[in-house]
Design goal:
Strand content of chain B: over 45%
Shape of chain B: globular
Largest sheet of chain A: 7 strands, mixed
Radius of gyration of chain A: 13 Å
Helix content of chain B: under 10%
Helix content of chain A: under 10%
Oligomer: heterodimer
Structural class of chain B: mainly beta
Number of strands of chain B: 11
Shape of chain A: globular
């Protein structure tokens, strides 16, 4: 399954809200979709799994939603530390695991 | 605290071999599937391989199938990736990642990565 993320780059300001998109080439029947945040020079960090469940310690400013082929990650009340690349990943369909190409968020 | 520490990366010529290791601490290593994910310089993430916790069932991306071998030694809490017949396009930072569960193949903890550079 090909995952396509948009936009490639997104610029916003402190306190604003942004929405990142991840589209699947085929329906994810199980909504097995995760989102990761990768800051410069660091390993990715899990923020959302099963399309909408926040990982431990992730603030409620991060919200995942969607089903089927269309998924979104919304970040509210942007903070400077949210600057990062965000990747989506599917884990329920063949091939076993695929990642989107990422969205770079600049605050 | 879960920690994953990779080692074994380096510079190798095309056609050569390299073995990566990843030691996991802070959790019961044998209870969890583990995986390797790589990231070529300035690009996105690519899943490479995964292995179940106890049965040792293995999974590979098509791009490495037949060249890479994933294994684990639960007595040493260590994950391995044996990479043979390396190609320039295998150049990447290789992350070791802990899988939440077999069947739920997403990654709740990552190492800091081990850099593999393949020269042509």
């Amino acid at each position: 399954i090909v995952l396509t993320q948009s936009p490639a780059t997104l610029s916003s300001s402190l306190g604003e809200r942004v929405t990142l998109f991840c589209g699947a080439g085929r329906t994810l029947s199980t909504n097995y979709l995760a989102w990761y945040q990768q800051k410069r020079g660091l390993a990715p960090k899990l923020i959302i799994y099963d399309a909408s469940t926040r990982a431990a310690g992730v603030p409620d400013r991060f919200t995942g939603s969607g089903s089927g082929t269309d998924f979104t990650l919304t970040i509210s009340r942007l903070e400077a530390e949210d600057s990062a690349v965000y990747f989506c990943q599917q884990y329920g369909s063949s091939p076993l695991i695929t990642f989107g190409q990422g969205t770079r968020l600049e605050i | 605290e879960v920690q994953l520490l990779e080692s074994g990366g380096g510079l190798v010529q095309a056609g050569g071999s390299l073995r990566l290791s990843c030691v996991g601490t802070g959790f019961t290593f044998s209870h969890f599937a583990m995986s390797w994910v790589r990231q070529a310089p300035g690009t996105g993430l690519e899943w490479v391989s995964a292995i179940s916790g106890s049965t040792g069932t293995t999974y590979y991306a098509d791009s490495v199938k037949g060249r890479f071998t994933i294994s684990r030694d639960n007595s040493k809490d260590t994950l391995y990736l044996e990479m043979d017949n390396l190609r320039a396009e295998d150049t990447a930072l290789y992350y070791c990642a802990k899988v939440v569960a077999v069947g739920l193949l997403y990654f709740d903890h990552w190492g800091q990565g081990s850099l593999v550079t393949v020269s042509s």
